[in-house]
Design goal:
Length: about 400
């Protein structure tokens, strides 16, 4: 029975090593293929840490080594700990956060060197397991928590799936931590301990699951970025005209189903041709960007802002009646007209005219609503500009 368990430990340690090297090769391969994310390098290094650590564990169970077993085991566990740390560092960099690389490296170095200076750790497998597992658990729950709390459109399911993989492994390591605390028999080797063999099985599965989860996160992120680029105006960053019909029809349908109002504010910058003629098209482009910034600053997170045409913008206000939409338009008018804006040291007038219409919960189609808003905007232009007209 012992020989069978020994074979299992050897095999599982080697299989866990393969999963780590596969993670490294996958991440580095994706990086070379053109997805230039720094997190990929971090996760490739994490895979190398896992692979080398478990490979040393395999060698330790298979061959007689000319150095103390505890020294090799300490190095193996430090490499695995470094792998867990680099998973966290990669997640921090992926999320645009400051990484904990140097503090993490210091802790790993302390764990490795402490075995050489503390006889209790050198002589007790149990206390080494407690120290190492505690470190892995903290890293895992923190890394998983970072992903779980992220709010990026279109990414929630993928972030949380990766978070579950990481935190589930941390939870299983917490069982190992508790087992080591209450099991004084854990003093010699993993070979005769079915619980520890189970941890090897979980570690092997974790390597493959983590690789898959992180790869899916990266590819989904790229898909969302490409989708955003297709929907965004390249100059202002607002939604573009192509995305308008899709979003408008969806919000119209939602307003009818919920019997809630939906309003449109159509905006046209006054005398914008004069800005281009006087200052040049580069300043004109900057003025359009500043107008877009003002619009985004005034509207709610639930509203939609579009670049409708050259110097025309449209704001879609779900849940807003005509009175509320008029208030939004008046605030935008004052923000734009309040002394203009300074671009490259030059004062640029950004006054605008506004047409406002409430679509209602039933009846008029989207095209009819836009026509009403356009007519209201025309009346604002004809009435002297820099004003709001209701449709």
């Amino acid at each position: 029975m012992t020989e069978l368990l020994l074979l299992d430990v050897r095999t599982l340690a080697f299989a866990s090593s393969v999963s780590g090297f596969l993670m490294a090769a996958t991440m580095f391969g994706i990086y070379l293929a053109g997805l230039r994310s720094r997190a990929l390098i971090d996760w490739a290094i994490a895979g190398l840490g896992f692979g080398l650590g478990y490979l040393l564990g395999h060698i330790l169970q298979t061959l007689e080594v000319p150095v103390p077993v505890w020294a090799v085991a300490s190095l193996a566990n430090s490499l695995i700990g470094f792998g867990h740390g680099m998973v966290l560092v990669g997640i921090q960099r992926y999320l645009g956060r400051r990484s904990w690389f140097w503090p993490m490296l210091a802790v790993v170095a302390f764990m490795f060197l402490s075995v050489f200076v503390l006889p209790e750790l050198r002589e007790s497998l149990r206390w080494r397991v407690i120290l190492q597992s505690g470190f892995y658990i903290l890293l895992g729950f923190y890394a998983g928590g970072l992903l779980w709390r992220v709010r990026r459109p279109g990414m929630r399911l993928f972030h949380r799936a990766a978070a579950v993989v990481i935190m589930l492994f941390a939870a299983l390591l917490a069982l190992r931590f508790g087992y080591a605390l209450v099991s004084p028999a854990l003093t010699t080797s993993f070979v005769s301990d079915p619980f520890q063999i189970g941890i090897f099985v979980v570690s092997m599965i974790y390597g493959y699951a983590l690789t898959m989860a992180l790869v899916l996160v990266l590819f989904r992120e790229k898909q969302v970025e490409l989708s955003d680029l297709a929907e965004q105006d390249a100059l202002t960053g607002l939604y573009n005209r192509l995305s308008l019909d899709t979003i408008a029809e969806r919000e119209m349908q939602r307003a009818r189903e919920r019997k809630t109002p939906l309003s449109i504010v159509l905006i046209d910058l006054d005398h914008f041709k004069d800005v281009n003629d006087r200052f040049g098209h580069q300043v004109g482009d900057r003025a359009l960007c500043r107008a877009a910034e003002l619009i985004e600053r005034v509207i709610r997170d639930s509203d939609f802002a579009f670049r409708y045409g050259g110097e025309e913008f449209m704001v879609l206000l779900p849940g807003a009646d005509r009175q509320h939409a008029e208030q939004v338009a008046q605030r935008l008018r004052m923000e734009m007209g309040h002394g203009g804006v300074r671009i490259d040291g030059r004062q640029v007038d950004l006054r605008a005219s506004f047409g406002v219409v409430e679509c209602g919960t039933e009846g008029a189609s989207w095209a009819e609503c836009v026509t009403q808003a356009d007519r209201a905007l025309y009346r604002a232009k004809r009435g002297g500009r820099d004003r709001v007209e209701l449709g």
